[in-house]
Amino acid sequence: MGNLLMLWVAAAGMCYTTLSASAWSVSNFLVTGPKAYLTYATSVALGAQAGVEECKFQFAWEQWNCPEHAFQFSTHGRLRGATRESSFIHAIRSAGVMYTITKNCSMGDFENCGCDGSKNGKTGGHGWIWGGCSDNVEFGEKISRLFVDSLEKGKDARALMNLHNSRAGRLAVRASMKRTCKCHGISGSCSIQTCWLQLADFREMGDYLKAKYDRALKIELDKRRLRAGNRAEGRWAPTETFLPRAEAELVFLEDSPDYCTHNASLGIYGTEGRECLQDSRSASRREQRSCARLCTECGLQVEERRTEAMSSCDCSFKWCCTVKCSQCRRTVNRYYCTRPAGSVRPRARGKSSAW
Ligand SMILES: *[C@@H]1O[C@H](CO)[C@@H](O)[C@H](O)[C@H]1NC(C)=O
Ligand SMILES: *[C@@H]1O[C@H](CO)[C@@H](O)[C@H](O)[C@H]1NC(C)=O
């Protein structure tokens, strides 16, 4: 018993350190949940953290840039808003957990799960059979459901929304899986192939969910039906009550606030002072438009700042085998959103000193 308690404490501490920013409600599932949870707690925390990082990456050049506090769940374990942005957060977190646990299974990190070989030996299609180590998404999905969905204690529309989006995140992991094959046959003739299903890169998953975010569906609430639903006991299957045809789509209930303007009471930083990308050869089209999105569309101007950066140059290859470079100074243009001279930054009234 003593050992078990120690383990609990250790696992809880781990969660707090890796997930402090997201204020993952450890006590919710570690202390009250079944003991089996312990085995997965660390991986779950790592998976959720991977979701946080991916969110930051996906939204780095957007007005809402997935700030750390967006993952702070209130005492009831929920986010403040029921916006498009919170739909993404729920989906990516749940996907991250499923993804990490699934990878762990394939790596043999857990005793009770491994590759999914259930179809091995069967014909998959013309010229190929199932074989090798397919990622066991079934298991990852189950653990993600256990951990992530148990955080949702409410029974209202917002709870439904959160559960729905968490599920959509898990469906995205499945949807972005890829078939990978290996050739067999006389001297690589590839007359027969064995194939298995593999998780995509987590980045691809993130791209996939970002696209879902872009066309997320707003749900208009039927108040009466929801109130009736509130009295129902136990958990609902969200897709049944909610959206029979859109199980893989992200859904939200409230329009997003204005992310341009600093608003302490809403926890919005505003885009003033943010960096944006322009004339960068490596930037995507969407990134190239970030100065318009972050500055111009928010009533700010784009300010160019010249900075000096050191980088390697004049490299030469010395026989054998080193590369010698000199350090060169290079002027780099960076772009920031600034308030046009003469205009004053609007001050939050009342609780303006909240941060
Ligand atoms: C699960 O995988 C992550 C890396 O993806 C690794 O850091 C973690 O230690 C693994 N969990 C276990 C229990 O081995
Ligand atoms: C912050 O947002 C709230 C809610 O939309 C609004 O009532 C308030 O006026 C905003 N404050 C500022 C300073 O814009």
TrEMBL record:
SMART domains in the record: WNT1
Protein origin, superkingdom: Eukaryota
Localization terms from the record: Secreted, Extracellular space, Extracellular matrix
Position of the signal peptide: 1-21
GO terms classed as biological process: canonical Wnt signaling pathway; cell fate commitment; cell morphogenesis; endoderm development; establishment of animal organ orientation; neuron differentiation; polarity specification of anterior/posterior axis; polarity specification of proximal/distal axis
UniProt GO cellular component terms: extracellular space
PROSITE patterns attached to this UniProt entry: WNT1
Record-linked Pfam families: wnt (PF00110)
Keywords, sorted A to Z: Developmental protein, Disulfide bond, Extracellular matrix, Glycoprotein, Lipoprotein, Secreted, Signal, Wnt signaling pathway
Gene Ontology MF annotations: cytokine activity; frizzled binding
InterPro entries: Wnt, Wnt8, Wnt_C, Wnt_CS
Family, per entry: Belongs to the Wnt family.
Annotated function: Ligand for members of the frizzled family of seven transmembrane receptors.
Family annotation (PANTHER family): PROTEIN WNT-8A (PTHR12027:SF92), WNT RELATED (PTHR12027)
Protein's name in the database: Protein Wnt
